[in-house]
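We give this protein:

***
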Amino acid sequence: MQLETQRLIIRQWHPVEDVRNAMDIFGDAKVMRWIEDSQDSSLRQVQGRLQRYRDSTQKSKDGTGSWAVIQKDIGRVIGHVALLHLLDLPEVRPDHVVEPILNGTNTDDYIEIGWHFRPASWGFGYATESARALAEYGFQALNLSLLLAIAHPKNKRSIALIKRLGMQYDGVTTRYYGGQSLCLYRLSASSYRQAKITSP
């Protein structure tokens, strides 16, 4: 899969070529504080991460995966976006009891949209631009009926982006990412299409 927007290209990861630029994402504590306990500390760690992303995306049979975001005018990786099955996440415990969310339905096998960008690229709208393109891909190309987003309640920047996508708050879940209390948001295909029709 490759997508193109006015300023960005979204493409598969190239673990060797992309590793140094990706270090600015996955090796930065300001980015990783919301994702994992610690940032990657070496190029070898980052390259291994990128290889796992590439392998899992290539093995995907339904078009989901993880991709690099390239800023066209400088030709370098500035971010990472993903559409992932929530139950593919290693932190999920299958026997973990989840509270009712999504108006009483279970989140099994729902798709999460996510993004991570290097701090030097924050504040320019790149994350919003790429997330909108990825949502479009999910709803149009993959024919998804629903997208979820999960964010730490203190991650105000990510929550603001989630709201710009038109996603609706659906409560707090502890099912994912090590049992933390995280905010859950949703966007249905019908709501997405209606918003596109009514937007100027």
Notes: The two ends are 29 Å apart (CA to CA). The chain has one domain: 3-198.
